[in-house]
Structures are given as structure tokens and as C-alpha cells.
Amino acid sequence: xxxxxxxxxxxxxxxxxxxxxxxxxxxxxxxxxxxxxxxxxxxxxxxxxxxxxxxxxxxxxxxxxxxxxxxxxxxxxxxxxxxxxxxxxxxxxxxxxxxxxxxxxxxxxxxxxxxxxxxxxxxxxxxxxxxxxxxxxxxxxxxxxxxxxxxxxxxxxxxxxxxxxxxxxxxxxxxxxxxxxxxxxxxxxxxxxxxxxxxxxxxxxxxxxxxxxxxxxxxxxxxxxxxxxxxxxxxxxxxxxxxxxxxxxxxxxxxxxxxxxxxxxxxxxxxxxxxxxxxxxxxxxxxxxxxxxxxxxxxxxxxxxxxxxxxxxxxxxxxxxxxxxxxxxxxxxxxxxxx
Amino acid sequence: xxxxxxxxxxxxxxxxxxxxxxxxxxxxxxxxxxxxxxxxxxxxxxxxxxxxxxxxxxxxxxxxxxxxxxxxxxxxxxxxxxxxxxxxxxxxxxxxxxxxxxxxxxxxxxxxxxxxx
Lengths: 339, 117
Fold this sequence. Notes:
Order of helices and strands of chain B: EEHEHEHEH
Structural class of chain B: alpha/beta
Largest sheet of chain A: 6 strands, antiparallel
Largest interface: A-B, 27 and 24 residues
Distance between the termini of chain B: 36 Å
Strand order of the largest sheet of chain A: 3-2-1-6-5-4
Distance between the termini of chain A: 94 Å
Strand content of chain A: 15-25%
Number of strands of chain B: 5
Mean pLDDT of chain B: 90
Helix content of chain A: 25-40%
Shape of chain A: rod-shaped
Radius of gyration of chain B: 13 Å
Strand content of chain B: 25-35%
Number of strands of chain A: 11
Oligomer: heterodimer
Low-confidence stretches of chain A: none
Low-confidence stretches of chain B: none
Shape of chain B: globular
Number of helices of chain B: 4
Order of helices and strands of chain A: HHEEEHEHEEHEHHEEHEE
Number of helices of chain A: 8
């Protein structure tokens, strides 16, 4: 076997993660069957590692592993079919083997390689005896059949390992997804309540860029409401600023961005302890001339469904200014007691 | 916003809960009133007791539906305005347009009187 093939074989063996695992009934039963069908006192399911052969299952053998150098199975894995040694004492390859001259005193050996679907022989299903013997054709066929069952069992185990790994990865991914979702929720909540990001500053100043989507309006209004409340603004004044901001952002979305949620608008808020809040809303639109906006209180306009936003903003805030051709609205209000 | 509908004779009472703003409740209320108008149920009381927030879009919707139902010989009357809603309607000069009530019985009775007139 070339070094590359052996390296590939050992890599394949590692993927089964079966070396040094506990005995398992499924393998032990197959080893017992092999022993009884072949009429041998010894039967093994071996896995040939780099320097040792390790026994996943063993009948009539007390050792858990032996050196690869004295292993019959190390020869068997190079065969495509059954590897049979009728009398090891007469075989030049084995007659001086310590397992022949001593230990279990092996004379007869028959091993069937355990081959993966990719063609790597990981070990053997083998039977052995301390006296020379032969196997009948029926016994050979049966041993090959049991070998296939061992191979199937190995594949089942590997598939289970893969499945367990995939399930673990899925669990990990789900946990990670939940963690990210929780983080996102927390971050969103903090953004929604902007004061959470600046709880004790004397002057709160922040700028937010939000999508031109009506659902994003509370992102700004809730935060400003909370900041003003925490700074001791009265409920009616907080309501006035909140409504003016709602109107300003709604106007920027509908008119400045044409209701296109892929566009963005910018909102800056500056609230100081002296009792003044200054809010700037900027949209990317074509702008407008505020002087052209009709008065919604005129009898001709009072029944119109729209056109009240700017009127409300002007009425609710102390000062309202437009800049950059109407693309930027700046409005300010002072706490009445601080005026 | 959530919307509950109740009918007393020819009058439909819509009880709103939550926000009536551009992004919330606006479309739902518009569809409901249009659906009622299609059924010739044009006498409407809108109960605003549990409306926590209303903006110019909400007001605009109410005035638009007031106009369309009046054209069908119906009416929209407002019940239980909160201080906030009242303030908004006041500065928008719409308290001169809408009849407002603090009692459902009085609101219902106003429709009866109109029917008898």
C-alpha cells in the first residue's frame, strides 16, 4: 500500500470515530455469529490503526489490541476477499509471529476485510483457532455475509455521527439565531427608546437615519417622547412635540420621499437641560415652498383630507424654519416654565 | 389599532383602540367605513375613548369619511374624545364640523332626532 493510500485509509478510519469506543452489542453479536458458524474459538472485529490493531469486538481473546507488526489482519486488509492462513506454523510470513509461537498460539486464521464505500479497508472480521483447519464454502460465504453486516453497521454508525453533528450544528445555528435575534431586539428597543442610549446626559443630541417607511416613525417619536419625559417636560408639551415630530416625519416620507421606503431621511434631535428641544428633519426630495401651502382653516380647505401637517407643526412648536429649498425642516420648542 | 363594530338600529358604532396615524389603523378604518357605506350603513359613531394617539392623517381620514357619508345622507359623529384628540380637533378647527359627544346614548339620540326632523 502506498503512503498516500495508507494516509487516506487512516483518515477514513478517523472519520468513523470508532477507535477506543466501548463494546457494542450489534458488533459483539456479529463476532459471536462468525465464531459459531466457523466453529472457531476466536473471532474478532478489528480496526487497523497506524501502529496497532484495535478490537471493537472479540470472542475468545482477552487483549484489547495488539501491535500492528504482529497482526494477521494487517495482511488481510490488503486482500479483496477472504485472507486464509490454514496453518500459520507452516507459513513463512507467520511462523515466527509471537501470536503463533506464544500468546493465543494461532495456527488457523481467516480474515475478511471491512471496506468502506470509498474503498478503504479499515480492518477485518476474522476468525482464528489454535489448531490448523479449513473453512467450508458455506462457512466462507457466511463469513463474507457477516462481514457485509459489519460494514453496514459501521456505515450506520458513521451516518449517525454525521447526523448527530448536523443536529448539533443545527442546534448551534438555532441558538446563534436566537442570540442574534435577542441582540437585535435589544438593539432595536434601545434605538426605539433613544434615551436608553443616553440616560443621564445633560444635553441629548443624536442623529438618526431611518427608512422612509411610516412604520419607522415610532423609532424617532418614542425616543424623543421618553427623553423629554425624563427631562421633566409636562405631558401636554411632550404630546405637542411628539405630534409635531410625527407630522414632520410623515410629511418627509409622503412628500419628500414620495412614499418610497427604499429612500431614507435624517432626523436630528437636540435636547438640553435649559429646557429647549431642537428637531431637524431632512429628506432627499425636490423641496417645496412653504408659502404655497394653503391654510387648512380656510373654509375652502377645512373639509380637505390633507394639508394639516405643516399647520399643526407651526401651531404646536414655538419656532419653525425651512432650509435648503424646503428639504430641511427645523423646529424648536421650549418648556413653558423655562421660557 | 384594533377596531370593534357594534350596530344599534341604523347606527354603527366603531370603537377604536390604539393609534390612528399614518402607519397604523388608517387603512383599516378607511376600509371599514367604505365597507359600511357600500351596505348603506352611513350613520356612524366613532368612539375615540381608547385612541391613544391621532395625527393629521387620522384627522384627515375622519374628515374625508365625514364628507363622503354626508353626501350619502349619513353622518360621522365622534364619541369620547380624549384630551389629546380634543386638542388636535380644536386646533384643526374641526370641532365646528364634527358633532362630539361624551355619552353614547346622547350620540345615538342625535341620530334619532335627525331622522324625526
